[in-house]
Amino acid sequence: MAEECEGTGSNDGFPGPGLDMTHGFVHHIRKNQIKRDDYDKEVRHAKQNQRPPRRTPAPTRPRKPDMNRYMPPTNEPATGPAKKIDHNSEPATALDELVLFKLEYEDEDGDISKLLVLKDDDPHEIAAEFAQECGIHDSLVDALVYRIEQEMKKRVK
User: Which long-range contacts (CB under 8 A, 24 or more apart) does 90-95 make?
Assistant: First the structure.
């Protein structure tokens, strides 16, 4: 009876065929497992050696150091009823109270002319001087006078 149980086949007394391992299939499975383990070790090692994560989040948009930032205009003094702004002079506090607004005009060449309008200025005189200085056509002077009057009315208290 002991001889009958030695086989891996049925109980009829003949030994079973067993597994034929000559094809090498199990060998390939073991080889792939070893490769996978080696890869996992490399990934773990690389993860340990990498920099710690940032504590602050990265900016959402790239920084552009070459771009000019907006600088608000400063109140600079002007002398007389309406004069061009002198960028080298220091602002005067008494004149700041008299200034209503700054009139700016950009001509076709891209040159910008600036003019401070004071509380007691006459819109007709300002428009005539500014038009002559900037080379504005005479037909547009009336529109400039109207616009200056409207802006002065808004700002006078």
Answer: none
Alpha carbon distance 50, 108 (integer Å): 58
pTM: 0.40
Q: Which residues of the chain have pLDDT under 70?
A: 1-16, 19, 58-59, 61-67, 76-94, 157
H helical segments located in the chain: 2-5, 25-49, 93-98, 123-134, 141-155
Contact 120, 155 (CB under 8 A): no
Residue 72 to residues 80, 86, 105, 111, 142: CA-CA distances in angstroms? Answer: 24, 17, 17, 19, 30
Amino acid at site 75 = N
Beta bridge partners of 114: 104
Three-class secondary structure assignment of 60-89? CCCCCCCCCCCCCCCCCCCCCCCCCCCCCC
The Cα 99–Cα 3 span in angstroms is 120
- Alpha carbons within 13 angstroms on the beta-carbon side of residue 145 total 11
Burial 49-87 (b: 16+ CB within 10 A, else e): eeeeeeeeeeeeeeeeeeeeeeeeeeebbbeeebeebee
